[in-house]
Amino acid sequence: MKKTLLASLALAALAGVAWAADDDKAIQALVDQYIATGYQQGEKQQLERLKQDETLKACSEHRNKPPADLMKAIMEREKATIKYPADNKMMGNWEKGKEVFNTGFGMRVGVIAPDKADKPRGGNCYACHAADPKEVAAGNLGNSLTGYGKMRGNSEETIKYTYEKIFNSQTYMACSNMPRFGHNGVLTPEQVADLVAFLVDPASPVNK
Ligand code: HEC
């Protein structure tokens, strides 16, 4: 008798887990549906970005806290996608980088106006980070990057880390809130190298 009771309790507990997982799936499906239909549909709409790849799906499923083995797998997979500049020069020109850091043009979801091929896209980095101390309109979702090069120097190691972090932030933090700028084709490897210079070059206003 006792055994049966224990067995049915165990079964009920298992079923409870199964129901919870089903609920989660149903809620996720509903969220996906709302997101997919929440934008105006039709020709010229750029809605491709709403589709999650394997990495984003895993992060959503685990509320950005995947178990350690999955976290490691995500970071390895993301790192393997990094492309480097043609001459492998990961530090470009800080003045150009300043422009890219500041500009918010390009890659919207939905269409305001189609991206112009001759107008380079920007990183809109100030939306989340402080950098040049003279720029007061800066967000704080990301850490302040003011004095970045002053604090970390400009060793090859720092340059490589900074390049890889900007190209694909999920290489270093499996479920980072920072967009994967190079990976998603928002910025070119050369633009990423210019951003590295803006952060690391002692002559950049970030380090003044
Ligand atoms: C949507 C917000 C967001 C945007 C936009 C964003 N970042 Fe980030 N960034 C973060 C967050 C959050 C972190 C800290 C967590 C992490 O390391 O992923 C971070 C971390 C970083 C780091 C690592 C800092 C460190 O202390 O090691 C660098 C470098 C960086 N961002 C550069 C940039 C650049 C350059 C841009 C623009 C091309 C940018 N970020 C745009 C949110 C953002």
Automatic annotation (TrEMBL):
<feature type="domain" description="Cytochrome c">
    <location>
        <begin position="92"/>
        <end position="203"/>
    </location>
</feature>
<dbReference type="GO" id="GO:0009055">
    <property type="term" value="F:electron transfer activity"/>
</dbReference>
<dbReference type="InterPro" id="IPR016823">
    <property type="entry name" value="Thiosulf_SoxX_II"/>
</dbReference>
<keyword id="KW-0479">Metal-binding</keyword>
<keyword id="KW-0732">Signal</keyword>
<dbReference type="InterPro" id="IPR036909">
    <property type="entry name" value="Cyt_c-like_dom_sf"/>
</dbReference>
<dbReference type="InterPro" id="IPR009056">
    <property type="entry name" value="Cyt_c-like_dom"/>
</dbReference>
<protein>
    <submittedName>
        <fullName>Sulfur-oxidizing protein SoxX</fullName>
    </submittedName>
</protein>
<dbReference type="Pfam" id="PF00034">
    <property type="entry name" value="Cytochrom_C"/>
</dbReference>
<keyword id="KW-0349">Heme</keyword>
<dbReference type="GO" id="GO:0020037">
    <property type="term" value="F:heme binding"/>
</dbReference>
<dbReference type="InterPro" id="IPR030999">
    <property type="entry name" value="Thiosulf_SoxX"/>
</dbReference>
<feature type="signal peptide">
    <location>
        <begin position="1"/>
        <end position="20"/>
    </location>
</feature>
<keyword id="KW-0408">Iron</keyword>
<dbReference type="GO" id="GO:0046872">
    <property type="term" value="F:metal ion binding"/>
</dbReference>
